[in-house]
Design goal:
Elements (H helix, E strand, L loop, with lengths): L1 H22 L7 E4 L1 H4 L5 H13 L2 H4 L3 E3 L25 H11 L3 E7 L15 H11 L3 E5 L8 H15 L4 E4 L17 E3 L11 E3 L4 E3 L1 H6 L13 E3 L11 H13 L4 E3 L8 H7 L2 H7 L8 E6 L2 E7 L5 E7 L5 E5 L6 E3 L4 E3 L7 E4 L4 E5 L4 E5 L4 E7 L1 H7 L1
Parallel strand pairs: 1-2, 1-10, 2-3, 3-4, 4-5, 5-6, 6-9
Antiparallel strand pairs: 7-8, 11-12, 12-13, 13-20, 14-19, 15-16, 17-18, 17-20
Bound molecules: alpha-D-galactopyranose.
Length: 409
């Protein structure tokens, strides 16, 4: 009898541990790098190694970027005779395990891409009908992150198709972040929190700050257009399950102010921070944006609440993101192409966010205001904040009570 109880407790403990290892994969939004935005299918073992080295030497790894994800183009055009996916031997002459091992040897994690349909968007073999086989391959290679696309998916039910892959990954036995990429077509925010850790909410980002690129059968969206599409989705995000407004274009030719605004808005939205630029030879400005620890702390805040658009006035959007310990981040984003002077009276702007149960009345409590980009205290909420927001730029601040205590010492 005694032994039976012991056995039962051991089995329950093991099951619980197993469930746990899949639960906490993305308590904060994932951070890393993805090859697609800059390199499309022009990827290789050499690119991965150079990228890993630059991620480390630039300080990005130390700032939290830890997933190196190879997007479309890593495979040969056909599966082998056993139905296995085969890495392109020209691009990856030592195979994919060697690539994953290199990434792991530097303390980082490794991700790959495939698609729920019969072919990927680039025309490489898709996973439809091979879910369990492909999942076993990924686990054997040491994959930690799978981005799963939606091309050639005619006739498929998105929830079912992604659930099948999610189960296959579980059965394969390795904790793998599952990144759904069906472009928001089937409202994944309504069902995907049980299926994966993040889901794309829109079509592809296009490398511009504020534009729409018409590709004919589909459109690419600038950073501003993508941001505008997130407004109603915040209630679906939280620790372990995130809205994904796509990989970033910071450092891909945007001006410094545009890059800073793009990055800040992604942080306000608790977006996954997946850099999409060439990490080798980044400018100082790009590195400074991508590694701003105070901005990243806002994105990665453990409360896990996506920010919201509080007010639109004189072409300035005011975003608010409640943080842990009753702190908040506020981001003033100037959409226009001319500087705008703002005069923000905290006392007339009570924060009342029912989603996160955050209620702040600045008549009753005073916060210190820390400028996240200038990296200095701007004063307190007892006074009107008068400042200039540069064209297509932001002023992003963190309000805290701790800051007040410190400055009084
Ligand atoms: C789709 C995805 C992109 C990228 C490409 C690859 O367009 O949305 O992010 O993965 O496919 O072909």
């Amino acid at each position: 009898m005694h032994k039976k109880w012991l056995l039962l407790i051991t089995v329950l403990y093991t099951l619980n541990m197993q469930a746990q290892k899949y639960k906490d994969l993305a308590l904060t939004p994932p951070m890393g790098w993805n090859s697609w935005n800059t390199f499309q299918a022009n990827i290789s073992e050499k690119l991965v190694m150079q990228t890993v080295d630059s991620l480390i030497s630039s300080g990005m790894a130390a700032a939290g970027y830890n997933y190196i994800v190879l997007d479309d183009g890593w495979m040969k055009m056909e599966r082998d005779s056993m139905g296995n996916l085969v890495p392109d031997p020209q691009k990856f002459p030592h195979g994919m395990k060697a690539v994953a091992d290199y990434v792991h040897s530097k303390g980082l994690k490794f991700g790959l891409y495939n698609c729920a349909g019969t072919k990927t968007c680039g025309g490489y073999p898709g996973t439809r009908g091979y879910e369990y086989q492909d999942a076993r391959l990924y686990a054997s290679l040491g994959v930690d992150y799978l981005k799963f696309d939606w091309c050639s998916s005619e006739g498929l039910n998105a929830k079912e198709a992604y659930t099948t892959m999610s189960k296959a990954l579980r059965v394969a036995g390795r904790p793998i972040i599952f990144s759904l990429c069906e472009w928001g077509n089937n409202q994944p925010w309504l069902w995907a929190s049980e299926v994966g850790e993040l889901w794309r909410t829109t079509g592809d980002i296009y490398n511009c700050f504020d534009c729409i690129k018409d590709h004919g059968t589909w459109k690419g969206w600038g950073a501003v257009q993508i941001m505008d599409k997130q407004k109603d989705l915040r209630k679906y995000a939280g620790p372990g399950h995130w809205n994904d407004p796509d990989m970033m274009e910071v450092g891909n030719g945007m001006s410094e102010n545009e890059g800073r605004a793009h990055f800040s808005l992604w942080c306000m939205m608790a977006a996954p921070l997946i850099a999409g630029n060439d990490l080798c030879g980044m400018t100082k400005q790009t590195i400074a944006i991508l590694t701003n620890k105070e901005a990243i702390a806002i994105d990665q805040d453990s409360l896990g609440v996506q920010g919201y658009l509080y007010q639109q006035k004189d072409s300035v959007d005011t975003w608010i993101k409640p943080l842990k310990n009753n702190e908040i981040a506020v981001c003033f984003f100037n959409r226009s192409k001319h500087p705008v002077t703002i005069s923000y009276n905290w006392k007339e702007n009570v924060v009342n966010d029912t989603l996160s149960k955050t209620m702040i009345d600045f008549n009753a409590i005073t916060y210190s205001i820390r400028d996240v980009w200038a990296k200095k205290i701007m004063g307190t909420t007892s006074k009107v904040l008068a400042t200039v927001v540069q064209p297509q730029d932001v002023v992003m601040v963190r309000l805290s009570i701790e800051g007040i205590k410190k400055s009084k010492k």
